[in-house]
Amino acid sequence: MVLQKRLDYGFSGYEVPAVPRATRSARKRVPFRKIVEGNQISAFDLLATVAGKLLDKENDTASNYTWSAEDQSAAETNTVKEERGDGNQSLKLEFCNQDGAKAEFFASELVSQTSDSNYSSKESPSLRNGALVATSDCLERADAQKLMNGKIKKEMGGLSCHVEAGPSVCGTSGDGIKPVSENKLLMDEELDRTDKALIGEVADKCSLEDALVLDVKPPAIVSSDGSFKARSYGDHNPLVSFTAKWDDVNVVSRDDDEKSSGCTHPSPLREPFRSTPRIVDRRIRKILASKYRKVAPRSKNVTNSNFDENLKSGYCNRSAYKRLRSGRNYPFKKRKFFYCRSESNSDGGTSSEGISDSSGNNNNRSISILYSKMHGVTGESSSPADQHKSFTSSNSHVKLRIKSFRVPELFIEIPESATVGSLKRTVMEAVTTILGDGLCVGLLLQGKKVRDDNKTLLQTGISCDNQMDTLGFSLEPNPSHTSPSLCPGGSPLKLPRDTPLPLSRYPANPGLVNQVTCDPSPEPRKPNLGNFIESNNGCASSPTDMFDKSTHESKALLAVPALSMETLAVVQAHKKSKQSEVAQRRIRRPFSITEVEGLVQAVEKLGTGRWRDVKLRAFDKAKHRTYVDLKDKWKTLLHTARISPQQRRGEPVPQELLERVLNAHTYWSQQQAKQQPLPESCLLYHNSTMIASSRSDVD
DNA sequence: CTTAGGG
DNA sequence: CCCTAAG
């Protein structure tokens, strides 16, 4: 069974620009939180939710308008259209992604006003609140994304698994997740009076799970009998399926005239569900024709928009297999952690071990940072005036501006000897796992950007003794992924200076810029610098000693992005015995000439098939060089020696060494060939040509 | 755990 | 550098 990856993210209080209509105020702060299945956040999801919340508050005069936005990151085309019918309003959001999955999202205005409370109160209390409903015409797909309204969840009682907003869930480990109440407090501070009132209203009206938490994407299947089946992933009940009759599902039903009929009614649907796809198709085609091509197709991201692709079940399975297969932890291979952690729902248990587990017992001098605050900041965005302009310049298009967001609980442990670049990459990897590609991470230290990726953290001034609150990370659009044409209107996303926001969880849009400031970690740090010196001592005789004085052997980087409390906990449960399981790709440490010299020498002596001996002989004290590393280095050396000098990169290896590499290789190949009887054909070939020539002077 | 190779 | 199949 494929376990779904779940991602919990949310925003609160980011600004939504004015719906292009004069009667609407310039911007609305829209608090919301939502959870999706899959690890890809797209503007699509964002938009759907935002739109829903936006309309929640937009109860003014009925008039049709259309607005849309395009997701820069995922090459999805989003169209948001408001429809009105029966005096109720609904918002429809259409999108399609590359692989043809099409879905429609409906954000129905269901906030109960006094006028419509007559039907909503009893049979479906949750319908009183804003709900987001989606349909999909890819029902066959196991990963078809569905939206359910709050009612389903509510009726399932304990299955409303995504109500993580509650302090009981968020605050368990006391490691930086703020209870909602506190968040709300912060939120309020951020808002001006008007917005404050607005949010208060919403909060009052909606329960957490119905309004602030919009549970958007549980995989669902619509069976032939018209019942709506969905799987819900409970905190403690990983895969619980339940069904609900369509009658109970609040779906927007539409006719071809595109008028909404009864979208806000909990009453039975009049229209067979199957009729929807047809309409969808039509619309999708339209969208495709008009807009889709404008979105620069970036294949990688595009594919990532497939939720099921992000399940990476393959990774997980393989990793599990590996864990079973061997218990080694050397070299550290923990990368898969990122891919597997959230699937581990099947482990079921949540754990209170928290992250402390992961950093414990680490004797390396490392900085444990608990990034508990992330808020956006941008230096590059234009002036507020420009931004405002960009929002209002083009009618019928919505430009979302996320003022800030926060990625909670990005836990990172990294040696001081690590480079800034590796730190960035570590953070990036953590974040990317959540967001998908399209972002890069910037590092700010005391407000200044740290650009030199090659400086070590120590050199940069990031050390144990440092106040971690001076450190900041920024999520920036990946330069290689820039696609200027964000929306038909042509005005790109502008990102303003931001203010920290509370409830927010994960950012959704690669067009965004945000910053991460990190608090001092509650984790016990390991500030014993004594070993530092030692670990590089006493190896003066080895060729590797000249190298890398500044780096002590570093435990692999460790980054634990927090997806949610559950996933975090699951991870902990997973590796109770192996704390170091969570780590990162090792730092790249180019071989110095001295090291190459030592390697060549050892191989000349020992041959190419005895890497363990080579390691022992020449790199015994270089703990970061494994025999596999040496083997790999030899491989690359050989390659380097064979290519033209122009094609070589990196620190040039003396030609003399390269020739020794070649000679040693041919010699030992020959030795090997002598021992193992060759096929006759080979024998003939070898005898006649190459062998004799280059075996002379080795050893 | 080591080797050998592909990624 | 990582990952894995094979010894």
From TrEMBL:
Any Gene Ontology CC annotation: nucleus
What Pfam families does UniProt report for this protein, alphabetically?
Answer: Ubiquitin_TPR1
The residues covered by the Myb-like domain are: 583-638
SMART domains per the UniProt record, alphabetical: SANT (SM00717)
Query: Main location per UniProt?
Result: nucleus
Q: Select a single GO molecular function from the record's annotations and give it.
A: telomeric DNA binding
Q: Which PANTHER family match?
A: TELOMERE REPEAT-BINDING PROTEIN 2-RELATED, TELOMERIC REPEAT BINDING PROTEIN
For this entry, the protein name equals: Telomere repeat-binding protein 5
> What is the scientific name of the source organism?
Hibiscus syriacus
